[in-house]
Amino acid sequence: MICLHPSRPRSHRTRASQSFLVLLTLFIAIPFAPAQAASSAKPVTLDRVIAVVNDRAILESDLLQEMRASVLEPNTAENRDETPQTALQRLISRTLIRQQIRDEDAQTATPTQQEISDRLTALRRQLPICVREDCSTDKGWNAFLVRHELTEQEVNNYLRNRLGILRFIEMRFRQGIQISPDEIQAYYHDTLVPQYQSGQAVPPIDQVSSRIQEILLQQKVSAMFSGWLDNLRKQGDVEVLDPSLEAAAAPSQEGAGTP
């Protein structure tokens, strides 16, 4: 049984004061002009808080990094319009889940470095966009990172977070869910193969079946998982501070598929 932690009520005045103090701290400006011309110098914003999830701040830099890392999503169509709202929605969901992992079983959900390395190798060889951009070679992989403004550390963090959350979800929701060979075959022919351009080598099904199983598992689990996540949002304290991102406050329907 999963224990949900009730929110800690805060008055509007307290919440506003805390948000103001956080924003005031992060909107630190560095003038480019000399001291005598400080009155005309334009401040440079280092970073800013765009949302708070149970007292954990989500920064604008987190959002920008999330949008860049979306290219690594295994079940994301490349023509999907990535917006700040959808990226923030994923960040809010992931933050709530990781807080729950920390409270329940952080050690069990932590992947090993070998698991991360194995997943990175599979991603470089099998992700459709990586196949097109020749990520299996060091030269192609380095070019891919530069082209999509990613670093090795950011990719490793993405895989560590994703594997940890997937493991937690499997422990909590996977029991009783089975993926049949027919379902894997259907996904391979109807969804995966069309992602490769004409003339490109499509990996044989036996090489990608485990990845397809993971994707299908996520889809089946999401129906159960979304209700649990909705409860986390209701019991928690989620505040979006940027009005342009308010739409992201609604519960994510992507469930475990994008953490």
Summarize the structure.
It is built from ten helices and three strands; from the N terminus they run αββαααααααααβ. The chain has helices at 12-26, 60-69, 84-104, 106-109, 113-126, 128-132, 138-147, 152-173, 181-192, 205-235; strands at 49-53, 56-59, 238-240.
Low-confidence stretches: 1-39, 248-259
Biggest sheet, spatial arrangement of strands: 2-1-3
Q: Class in CATH?
A: Mainly Alpha
Q: Kindly identify the CATH topology.
A: Triger factor/SurA peptide-binding fold
Level-2 CATH architecture: Orthogonal Bundle
CATH superfamily caption: Porin chaperone SurA, peptide-binding domain
Defining key terms:
259 residues, mainly alpha, Triger factor/SurA peptide-binding fold, 3-stranded antiparallel β-sheet, 3 strands, disordered N terminus
Notes on the structure:
The structure is a single chain. The protein has 259 residues and is mostly helical. It has a single domain (12-257), classed as Triger factor/SurA peptide-binding fold (Orthogonal Bundle). Helix content is 56%, strand content 5%. Strands 2-1-3 form a 3-stranded antiparallel sheet, with helices on both faces. α2 crosses α3 (84-104). Mean pLDDT is 78; it is low at 1-39 and 248-259.
